[in-house]
Design a protein that fits this description.
heterodimer, A: Rossmann fold, 2 domains, 10 strands, B: 2 domains, four-stranded antiparallel sheet
Chain lengths: 228, 293
């Protein structure tokens, strides 16, 4: 579960990125976080992953209180959160298999566990035949699938997808979102950050709209409260 | 540390070494150069100290006993002389023994001199020639001791040589250690810059700082130890060669050279410790900034 209660965030350069933001994302929920560039979306992601701390207010993610968390506890929090990026962020010199296995190795999984789970998750995202490929040998959609597999591999409670379709054509975008929807149906909480109106409108999901560091609207069923 | 991770750390560390071949070579080279210079000066200082020790052994302070004191009473002063700080040993020389020694070294024209013109004396050996003046004063304060002769200028000369060599060695060691540390740190920093994307991903996925740090520390460790071992072999070869040349060309017995075998274990240990410290601390320092996020 993700909970923001009256959260303020001001950066050292004086920019007030968030001004009294409150919302709750229940376990198993699927939500879009929408807003234009500079609206505060990235700040929300950074707060959820513990990259930055709130200036005021309370941020709670999967039982961890971000305003009081100790630095050495951050890896534990991050292991409960899978992150998917617009630019995929795959390691170029590692194969598809290694890119995914790498995330398991980090959390201390045994070789046996890795050998069992990686092919299973690659099958889930439709990449079972591309295990040995390097990222630059894959299409954008396939690379994003690898990123989805990596986010999913450690069975996180929550997945944050940060503009996951930003570098993809409409058909591939839809495929990725359907994949995320499928993962959500299996029980993983999903927060998809985007500024693409068309993408959001194809799904009847909860939409949290943010602009100028404030929540403009929060409700089910479409892309409203913010017009690009 | 989990066992299945050790393989990963070693693989990643070695990959880093190979990938940054030139910088790896450069940092090993710098460590070798620094240790070699450091080792050479240390060996020079050791040899100078050994030579000084020989001089010290020969540098005797003579404590002349009051001529009115009979021999037995004069001999009894030994315990008081030995109790003076910095006195290593003292040897009683009676006026007759001194006389014989004097006559044997002098021309015959002094042969008709009587032993009674000389005083009983102690040949006093010191622990540290640098303290000669103070010891001389302390000896003079003993009742019954009439006069002290010590060659203060030789003592001062010896001490100056030793101090200069020690100071130069110390300064060089410190400077070279700092240089080694920064070169190593830069090599590893280059490796971290090259892999900053990967480190960022590791952080996001929930890697602990230790997990991220280990391959880099291992890389630094291997470079440091390799540098230490190469420097040791090079120093051994260089020292043996130079010592051989000196012995061959200066067969005089003015001074003797410390054999490498008598110092090889401490040198190897010190080199390994420095290599380890420079490698591990340098890499830890380089990676530090990347672990803050």
């Amino acid at each position: 579960m993700v909970q923001f209660v009256n959260v303020f965030k001001a950066y050292e350069n004086g920019i007030k990125a968030l001004k009294d933001v409150s919302f709750t994302l229940e376990d198993g929920e699927f939500a879009f976080l929408v807003g234009p560039s500079g609206s505060g979306k990235s700040t929300i992601i950074k707060l959820i992953t513990g990259e930055i701390m709130p200036t005021a207010g309370k941020v709670s993610v999967n039982g961890f209180d971000l305003d009081t968390i100790k630095r050495r506890k951050l890896p534990k929090l991050r292991r409960t959160v899978g992150v998917i990026f617009q630019d995929f962020r795959l390691i170029e010199n590692k194969s598809v298999y290694e890119n995914v296995a790498f995330a398991m190795r980090i959390v201390g999984a045994s070789n046996k566990e890795i050998k069992q789970r990686v092919p299973y998750v690659l099958g889930l995202v439709g990449l079972e035949s591309k295990e040995k490929f390097k990222p630059n040998e894959l299409s954008g959609g396939e690379q994003q699938r690898v990123a989805v597999a990596r986010a999913l591999i450690n069975n996180p409670t929550l997945i944050i997808a940060d503009e996951p379709t930003g570098n993809l054509d409409p058909a591939r975008s839809l495929e990725i979102l359907m994949l995320l929807e499928k993962i959500n149906e299996l029980g993983t909480t999903m927060l998809v950050v985007t500024h693409e109106k068309d993408v959001v409108n194809q799904f009847s999901k909860r939409v949290i709209a943010i602009d100028g560091g404030k929540v403009l609207s929060d409700g089910l069923g479409g892309y409203y409260g913010y017009e690009a | 540390m989990k066992l299945n991770r050790i393989g990963y750390y070693i693989k990643e560390g070695l990959t880093g070494l190979v990938k940054h071949g030139f910088m790896s070579f450069a940092s090993v080279f710098i460590i070798v150069a620094c240790l070699l210079i450091m080792g050479s000066f240390s060996l020079l200082a050791l040899n100078v100290n050994a030579i000084i020790k020989d001089f010290e052994d020969e540098n005797v302070v003579l404590a002349f006993i009051d001529e009115d004191i009979p021999e037995q009473q004069a001999r009894a002063l030994e315990s008081q002389i030995l109790s003076v700080p910095n006195v290593a040993s003292a040897e009683f020389i009676s006026r007759e023994e001194a006389y014989e020694s004097f006559i044997s070294k002098s021309e015959e024209k002094y042969a008709d001199l009587d032993a009674s013109v000389l005083r009983h004396r102690f040949a006093v050996y010191l622990d540290d020639v640098a303290l000669t003046a103070q010891t001389q004063q302390d000896l003079r304060n003993i009742p019954g001791v009439a006069e002290i002769t010590a060659n203060l200028s030789i003592a001062r000369g010896i001490v100056t040589v030793r101090n200069v060599v020690s100071a130069v060695s110390m300064v060089l060691v410190v400077i070279l250690l700092i240089i080694s540390f920064f070169i190593m740190s830069n090599t590893i920093k280059l490796a971290t810059v090259d892999r900053r994307e990967e480190i960022g991903i590791m952080k996001v996925v929930g890697a602990t700082n230790a997990f991220i740090r280990w391959p880099f520390v291992l890389e630094g460790f291997i470079l440091g130890i390799a540098g230490a071992l190469i420097a040791f072999v090079a120093l051994w070869a260089l020292y043996t060669f130079i010592a051989g040349e000196i012995v061959k060309n200066y067969t005089s017995t003015l001074f003797s050279i410390i054999p490498f075998s008598s110092v090889q274990i401490p040198i190897l240990v010190i080199f390994l410790v420095i290599g380890f410290a420079v490698g591990v601390l340098g890499s830890s320092f380089a990676i530090k900034n990347y672990l803050k996020v």
